[in-house]
Amino acid sequence: MTTKQENHDYLYKSKYFLIQQRIILIQQKIQKVILVGDARVGKTSFLIRYVKGVLPKNQLPTIGVEYLSKSVLLQDGEGIVKAQIWDTSGSEKYKSITAAHYRKSVGALLFFDLCDYQSFLNSKKWLKEIENHTEEGIKIMLIGNKLDLIEENPINRQVNKEEVLEFCQKNNLIYQETSSLTGQNVKESFEFLIQQDIVSYDQQPVKQNSGCCSC
């Protein structure tokens, strides 16, 4: 049987916990990130692997835009970010739909398939799409996906890494090679981008209220 003091302590701790949770939610930052690139480069598999920790079975191509979210604990206890992650279709017929969802993104993951050179060439086109439909200063990470196929057989690599690094240096991109199948570098690359977004956001000068509404 619990004593009156024990009941009081339990209620106090429960109330304190709820207050702390509320503070965390209030302080939680929301960051929008978009996934961009050709169809079948592994964007959706990457997203589901990161958010749910599993690989989807019989994954169908994305129609228009899909959305998932995940809370991310920042390094050094700097807080929590709620990442709103938008997976955009790589199909040209959905281009007008997907472009509308680029707005207000603070970060972008730009994908290509390490085993498909054309998908890398097309990433230059996708980069322009990102730049044309987002605000200046967005952080972009280039993702060379399907690394597992390269490790299985190096001859599968169709994109020269030196060429990729040169492209990244020219366009100020972060680069990482990942595998949605094994999960290699999936969590690390996404959360590194989020951390860069936060640093960039915190360093921006405070704007004076001009009376205009930016939607």
From TrEMBL:
The similarity annotation says: Belongs to the small GTPase superfamily. Rab family.
Q: Which organism is it from?
A: Ichthyophthirius multifiliis (White spot disease agent)
Alphabetical list of Gene3D superfamilies matching this protein:
P-loop containing nucleotide triphosphate hydrolases
Pfam family membership, one:
Ras
The organism's superkingdom is given as Eukaryota
Q: Source organism lineage? A: Eukaryota, Sar, Alveolata, Ciliophora, Intramacronucleata
* Protein name per the record: Ras family protein, putative
Q: Give the coiled coil ranges.
A: none
Q: Name one GO molecular function term.
A: GTPase activity
For this protein, the record's InterPro entries field holds: P-loop_NTPase, Rab_GTPases_membrane_traffic, Small_GTP-bd, Small_GTPase
PANTHER family attached here? DRAB11-RELATED
